[in-house]
Design brief:
The chain is α/β, with parallel strands linked by helices. It has 29 helices and 24 strands. It is globular and about 115 Å long. It starts with a helix and ends in a 12-residue tail after the last helix. The C terminus is likely disordered. It binds one DNA strand through α8, α14 and β14.
DNA sequence: CTCTCCCTT
């Protein structure tokens, strides 16, 4: 064979599946090298030629699947289809800015198909949320008149419908990110659409960084990044000045009214209900239409609900219905928002209604301008959840919720100049979160140092250090920040690093069964429902599994009970049972799915769970491997000064790193605070709360925390009876003494000094002592001291 | 005496 055949073959690669072309190109390079050394390559060439042939046939088969593309008539993106097509042909990257109603989410994948994408590889389309991924896929499939799961498929955690004939695959951004592990080139895609990039979740930022590096290695890959806000220059600059296309939205104008809460800042909380009632009255006078009110949390919602129920809302337009809406609400209560209704509705919502759920039929919005924002404080090493003024972008998003049906009105319960002073955008998650999981992934995928990774926003050095500190605590990296064998294992577990560490301890200590249950239970949202108006009944039902020394064992008890029921009950009966026991069926199912998934990972490796139950201590010691940074000692002084009679005074704890904390009232341990406490989570809101707790034995700490303990040796002294030099040692974990004044052999610690003391106190002391004894022998006896009392 | 919202090998 000649060099001509080699180049002829390599020119054919552009007609192969993207999945194959990279491997085949590598193969051809190898053959070229062989040929240059004068080695025979005939057989290799024949094989490659056959593979190319097969791959091209697969491409043709996919081309035959192309559906007739029909567009939803007059959506703004569709009207500018030609431009998008041209941009896709000309450029590798396109930034598309399209606001609500532009049609970008549903129409772009179809335009990509029309541009000839989706044949050599999949068109991958990512969504930030699972529900959205599924519904977007269903919608596109419907518009293309094909059944979901064939030409248009979707994939989210635990479920999905994708087949060999899938051309468009809609998935969560988390799925695409996870695929990098098994396919670093993302070679099965010929096009990627990263939707809702303005949300700037950790997944999106990680993907955009990764894709920047990937694009040069995948010249045939096209990327579309979409954003609903106008600040797309950042994205463009990130991708070396990629073209930007802006498509208008399809929304109605929203009139802004500023009605700041009267009174000074300290009184805001008190005056907010008043301001809310005034706003409701003002909007009620405008005419019919539902009102959506945004709050920072459940508490504000409940206060507002109470105030509204007492308040005579003008009723000439029919009854007014008040509905709370937040993520923790039971599925049935959430569903009420989507039911048809007469009269006026006032929906009191948290941020769920800002992006995750679209409440239908909203004509008016009232915005308190506040939200709870999670931030990881690297300095304190703790996660905070504080109420903050929302950004301008978030405020616009909230207001936009009443501009979908017709012109809307939004009342902001803050001043216009307050709005003007706010940050333009919400800080991206990567600047607000604990980076341990990100860094663990980067280490395991060998992506180099975080500082060099092309993140849109570079994380702060202190955040990076805090993340490495946590990874060291978990023994996932060593002192030099090198990934350990344990770290490599940890990176393959799709759970929080602390929780993953527990599972690995469970594997080692023969309590994998228990760890899989507890860790999956800690990962999903708590399935125990506690509706505000039926808290007592709920608590009563949950008491069946309650363990007052360990919330973890409560979880385990709930699981065992449920598994027993599930074994002989139909799905419908199980659902009813959940309802009766104030459990969320959906979350119980999530728990089981995650448990199943984690279990599967171990089974693949041939590791199986222990069959015999283990002692509670074994379970808690395995948990502790992940929670060494969340240990605390009861503050005894406080207990003395505040007698137990005063029940309102909460028992305070002294945690590691000097943190003061208290047991969260949702914990079963709140009434029986143990001396030593271990918490799955520390969260600072009004104060630092320890959530999901267990009483522990401090003796477990030393063997598990050897790599973290600092030792302080004091009072070396000669011991007359043993004839040795002894001292006391105090071991501290992050500044918290965990072993107090334990006698140790000083010679093993500081042999030279021990020898000095031996001579000084032992030898000379013995002489001195001998003198004393001699003295006493010749002098009159002194009176014996009376025994000590009390 | 209480905690916004998402996502995964």
């Amino acid at each position: 064979m000649t060099a001509l055949d080699l180049s002829a073959l390599s020119s054919q690669l552009d007609n192969c599946l993207t999945r194959d072309s990279h491997a085949l190109r590598t193969r051809l390079h190898g053959l070229k090298r062989r040929a240059s050394k004068g080695l025979p390559i005939d057989k290799g060439l024949l094989e490659v030629a056959a593979q190319i042939e097969a791959s091209q046939q697969a491409v043709e088969a996919r081309r035959a699947l192309l559906p007739t593309i029909r567009y939803a008539d007059d959506l703004p993106v569709v009207l500018r289809r030609e431009e998008v097509l041209a941009a896709l042909t000309k450029n590798q990257v396109l930034i598309l800015c399209g606001e609500t109603g532009s049609g970008k989410t549903t129409q772009l994948p179809k335009i990509a198909l029309e541009a000839g994408r989706g044949v050599r590889g999949l068109i991958g389309h990512t969504q930030p949320r699972r529900i959205a991924a599924r519904s977007v896929a269903a919608r596109i499939a419907e518009e293309l008149d094909t059944p979901l799961g064939e030409k248009v498929g979707y994939q989210v955690r635990f479920t999905g419908q994708v087949s060999d004939s899938t051309l468009i695959k809609v998935m969560t951004d988390g799925i695409l990110l996870a695929e990098i592990h098994s396919d670093p080139l993302l070679s099965k895609y010929d096009t990627l659409i990263i939707d809702e990039a303005h949300e700037r979740s950790l997944n999106i930022d990680f993907l955009l960084g990764y894709l920047k590096r990937l694009l040069p290695k995948r010249p045939e890959l096209k990327l579309i990044v979409t954003s609903a806000t106008l600040d797309v220059e950042r994205f463009s600059a990130h991708f070396d000045g990629a073209d930007i296309m802006s498509v208008e939205g399809r929304t109605y104008p929203v009139e802004m009214r500023y009605r700041p809460v009267q009174g000074d800042d300290d009184d805001r909380d008190r005056d907010l209900p008043r301001a809310l009632l005034d706003a409701v009255d003002e909007l009620a006078a405008e005419g019919a239409g539902d009102i959506l009110v945004f709050f920072d949390g459940e508490r504000g919602i409940r206060e507002a609900e109470e105030a509204l129920r007492k308040h005579p809302v003008p009723r000439h337009l029919g009854a007014t219905e008040i509905l709370p809406l937040y993520a923790r609400l039971s599925a049935a209560d959430q569903a009420r928002v989507f039911q048809k209704h007469g009269g006026r509705r006032i929906i009191l919502a948290t941020n769920v209604a800002e992006t995750s759920l679209t409440v239908p039929g909203i004509r008016y919005v009232i915005d308190t301008g506040l939200a709870r924002v999670s931030r990881f404080s690297a300095h304190a090493g703790i996660q905070r959840l504080q109420v903050e003024p929302i950004s301008q972008a978030a405020a616009r998003q909230r207001a936009g919720r009443c501009g979908r049906l017709g012109p809307g009105i939004c009342i902001r319960l803050y001043a216009e100049d307050d709005f003007a002073k706010r940050p333009a955008h919400t800080d991206p998650e990567i600047l607000r979160t604990n980076l341990a999981a990100v860094i663990l992934r980067m280490e395991s995928w060998q992506l180099g140092h975080v500082d060099d990774f092309p993140f849109l926003d570079k994380p702060d050095g202190r955040q990076i250090k805090a993340a490495y500190d946590l990874l060291f605590e978990l023994q996932a990296v060593d002192e030099t920040r090198r990934l350990s064998a344990l770290g490599a294992q940890l990176s393959r577990l799709p759970v929080d690093p602390r929780l993953g560490r527990m599972v690995l301890a469970g594997e080692r200590d023969g309590c994998l069964a228990e760890m899989l249950v507890i860790v999956s239970g800690l990962t999903v949202q708590d399935p125990r429902d506690r509706p505000p108006e039926r808290q007592q009944a709920a608590d009563q039902a949950h008491a069946a599994w309650k363990n007052t020394t360990s919330d973890f064992l409560s979880l385990l008890a709930l699981w065992r009970w449920y598994e027993e029921q599930a074994r002989h009950l139909s799905q419908a009966k199980l659902r009813g049972l959940c309802e009766k026991n104030f459990l969320s069926y959906v979350r119980m199912r999530e728990w089981r799915s995650l448990h199943q998934e984690l279990r599967g990972l171990f089974h693949e490796e041939g590791v199986h769970e222990n069959e015999a139950p283990v002692s509670e201590d074994v379970v808690h010691r395995a948990l502790m491997t992940g929670l060494l940074g969340h240990l605390a000692l009861r503050d005894e002084e406080k207990r003395k000064t505040n007698p137990a009679k005063d029940k309102r005074e909460m028992v305070s704890y002294q945690g590691v790193k000097g943190r003061k904390l208290a047991i969260h009232p949702g914990s079963a341990l709140v009434k029986t605070p143990p001396k030593w406490l271990m918490s799955a989570q520390w969260l600072e809101t009004t104060r630092v709360w320890g959530a999901m707790n267990a009483a522990i034995n401090p003796r477990w700490i030393e063997p598990l925390a050897k790599h973290l303990l600092s030792r302080e040796v004091s009072e070396p002294h000669y011991q007359l009876d043993s004839g040795r030099v002894a001292a006391f040692e105090t071991l501290s974990l992050y500044g918290l003494p965990v072993v107090l004044r334990r006698a140790v052999n000083y010679a093993a610690i500081d042999p030279l000094d021990a020898r000095r003391i031996f001579i000084l106190e032992g030898v000379l002391g013995a002489l001195e002592g001998w003198e004393v004894v001699a003295d006493q022998a010749w002098s009159t006896p002194s009176p014996q001291p009376s025994p000590a009392r009390g």
